[in-house]
Amino acid sequence: MNRQAALTLSFDSMSLDDLALVGGKNASLGELTRSLPKDGIGVPPGFAVTTEAFRLFLDQDGLREKVTGLLEGLDKSDMRAFQATGQKIRDAVLATNIPEGVADAIRKAYRDLSEKVGRPVSVAVRSSATAEDLPGLSFAGQHDSYLFIEGEEALLDATRRCFASLYNDRAISYRIDQKVDHMAVAISVGVQMMVHSDTASAGVIFTLDPETGSRQSVLISAVYGTGEGIVQGIVEPDEYYVHKATFNAGYRTVYRHKRGAKLTKLIGGGDDPAAAPKEIPVPTEDQSHYCLSDDEIMSLADAALAIESHYSSHYGHETPMDIEWGKDGVTGTLYILQARPETVESLVNPNEVTRFTLKGTGPVITSGRAVGKKIASGTARRVLSKDEIGDFQTGDILIAKTTSPDWEPIMKRAAAIVTDHGGRTCHSAIVSRELGIPAVVGTGNAMAVIKDGMEVTVNCAHGETGEVLDGLVPFSVQKTDIGKLKRPQTEIMVNIADPEQGFQMGMLPSDGVGLARIEFIITHAVGVHPMALLHPDKVTDVDARKNIEALTRDFPDGGAFFVNALAEGVAAIAASFHPRQVIVRMSDFKTNEYAALLGGADFERAEDNPMIGFRGAARYIHPDYAEAFALECAAIKRVREDMGLTNVKVMIPFCRSIHEAESVLRAMESRGLKRGENGLQVYIMCEIPSNVLSIDEFAKRFDGFSIGSNDLTQLVLGVDRDSAKLADTFNERDPAVKKAISMAIEGAHRGGRHIGICGQAPSDYPDFTRFLVEAGIDSISVTSDSFFEMFDIAARAEADLPVKKVVGD
User: Fold this and answer.
1) Distance from the CA of 522 to the CA of which of 145, 434, 441, 746 falls in 20 to 30 A?
2) In this structure, are residues 85 and 70 in contact, taking their beta carbons and an 8 Å threshold?
3) pTM of full prediction above 0.90
């Protein structure tokens, strides 16, 4: 058979080499069909209507000349005239008959597919242009697809509609922007056995983090019904994270689950191929459950990594992938529906870090999922439909319920996008990444609370939550070429509390995490006093008991809820930095802070000075909290042993004496965290004068130290660090404090132990950093906003030293 003259080709006869004949999407489906392991998740069978068939169609009735004439000299500056021309072209295409030879070939291929499946088959009909789904050029959502098509005549009609979609306004606009010759692009049509996800679930997989480009994890999103619910941004999906390195090492676990609302789902629109999918409500019971089991997530991760590996081999470099999947509600079988190279973050220069930083504040109007890491400000323009495109001005902030591919021309003009609906893989998110603009999606209320003409600032520079601020808040943009940085011998690490900032901070060229605070996780992901979870019967507030019951209903008990939430929060940080070390400090709430948690008032006694009261190590071994400390240990054990994230080290705060140290280590060992076992290292905070004075004894019992300069200053000088009246007296650079730090560094090195600092002082005072380097500190851990500055300060300080001291292990 002359392949170039073929009018249809089955998926199992195609590969990536057939791009010109079947387009990017179909070539990829052919490659997947041939390359995926036979014992894993496969591709639904199907065939492609080739670009040769499309060319024969264009040659009918002078259609090619008509299309060429209308496209010639087309100008986007007059948007209404632009739209009118696009409509004329589509009308001409839809009025043209498919040549009989082409129609016969399509009918035969459809009958062959039905025979292969064993029944008259319902199919998905998708456009596949010759310049889409390529590295660096996605054409995301530019062309049309039709689902649940049954019968030969309906298939021919859907095919013609796919041909017409080559001339959608958004596709024409995209080609103009990308400087692609309209008539040089041909379109193929993929016809694929329909996966009935309308009665099950579907979603998207990224083999990198789509916001930061971090390649540590696989992100799987899922909704009930067809995957269009995600793409259109009308359904908030579940999200699951699988860590690549530990997964490949045999740890088949989901390290983080995020349950989406999933209030509605999309199903087939009916007999009319042009009908939009129908949105129907999801039963309340199903909304509270995840779409996928962990075993199904593992199967999808397996397939995703196999696809990434295959494409990486094909292109000769690591190629992160954007994959669509579906689950058939009849058979329960999982399928890969499409796969394409990710075309935004994977092409970013990893050595160039751009940081956006707010230089002011403003009231938060609304918030949602952040897309990108940028900040933008401008005039808010509320848009209800694509018909209002002509009124939108370049540089405006687009406010909408959601967006669709028809909105591409208006999105191109926007400085930022804010939507009521959508998740990180919806159309608004995908296009905003490609355009390089920030977006806040899934706010739930942007259209209600943002007035047309308001001046607003869209801030996506602080992790996964994006905010819309009232007013034009000033911000700065700083670019850093990591390749040109002079790396100091002193380790420069970061402090982190919010797991949602993990991927972003993990992209920094740090030596790891010097301080991961779990208090943030307990406050935001748990929200309940751990003893109240263990003993809800002792909670006297009726409403609090009801809230606790609601939070824990999907778990065997409150303790399991706590362990799961804390483990997944810690894992999100550890996975982002793997294999670099992550030092996790066990809880260091004070009694007043614990009392503020749900149910906490029934388990905490008021103290006159909580700062030096019932906190840290003393709490862990006291009968009033020992059960809760066991939950903390169980969470860390799960992260290290079940998830394989052994880069996690444990740090004990506010340990006053050797007796407390030994008691805590025994308590940890009894709960499965034995120092030295499975490589576990246990650090101690050096923040009490007794830690300095007994440094040699502490060094025998711990693997390292981290100086907490705030508490150490407070206790050396006898100053309440929260006292406004004594603010001028509180000084980390006081000679007595510096002497205590020098003694600690000398003592740690004398015992062959690593010692770092995780306090605020190095970030605030360059001269203090110089002192630390001169004293031989091993590591300095700072917040991300002062990270690069610390690199420079430490490097310059080391340059002035005759020899940099080699530190303890």
Assistant:
1) 441
2) yes
3) no
With residues binned 3-state (H G I as helix, E B as strand, rest as coil), the percentages for the chain, rounded to 5, are 45, 20, 35
Longest dimension (CA), the chain: 94
Are 476 and 361 members of one domain? Answer: yes
Q: Alpha-carbon distance 679 to 681, whole Å? A: 6
373 & 310 share domain = no
Classify residue 646: in a domain, yes or no.
Answer: no
Q: Hey, which residues are catalytic here?
A: 427, 758
Given a contact cutoff of 8 angstroms between Cβ atoms, the answer to whether 708 and 686 are in contact is yes
Please state the φ and ψ torsions of residue 87, each to the nearest 5 degrees: -65, -40
In this structure, is residue 401 part of a structural domain?
yes
Pinpoint the alpha helices (H) of 166-227: 169-177
How far lies 700's CA from each of 676, 688, 750, in Å? 13, 17, 11
Structure tokens given for 99: 């040549």
Give 319-322 contacts, CB < 8 A, sequence gap 24+.
319/135, 319/346, 320/206, 320/207, 320/208, 320/215, 320/345, 320/346, 321/205, 321/206, 321/207, 322/204, 322/205, 322/206
CB 155 within 8 A of CB 106: yes
The H or E element containing residue 299 is helix 294-315
424: domain CATH number is: 3.50.30.10
- Cβ atoms of 245 and 219 closer than 8 Å: no
Which residues have CB under 8 Å from 387's CB, separation 6+? none
Residue written as token pair 């995020």? 258
Clarify whether residues 327 and 431 are in a common domain: no
Structural domains in the chain (count): 4
Model confidence over 451-508: pLDDT tens digits?
999 999 999 988 789 999 999 999 999 888 887 788 899 999 999 999 988 998 999 9
E strands of 160-307, at which residues?
187-193, 201-206, 217-224, 238-243, 256-258, 264-267, 278-281
Beta strands 491-496 and 512-517: pairing type?
A: parallel
Domain carrying residue 83: 3-194
415 CB burial (10 A radius; 0-12, 13-18, 19+): middle
Instruction: Give the rounded distance of the alpha carbon of 723 from its chain centre.
Output: 40
Q: Evaluate if residue 136 carries a pLDDT over 60.
A: no
Helices (H), 578-688: 591-595, 617-620, 626-637, 658-670
List CB contacts of 377: < 8 A, sequence separation 6 or more: 397, 415, 455, 456, 457, 458, 472, 473, 475
In this structure, which amino acid lies at residue 174?
Y
Query: Does 284 fall in a domain?
Result: yes
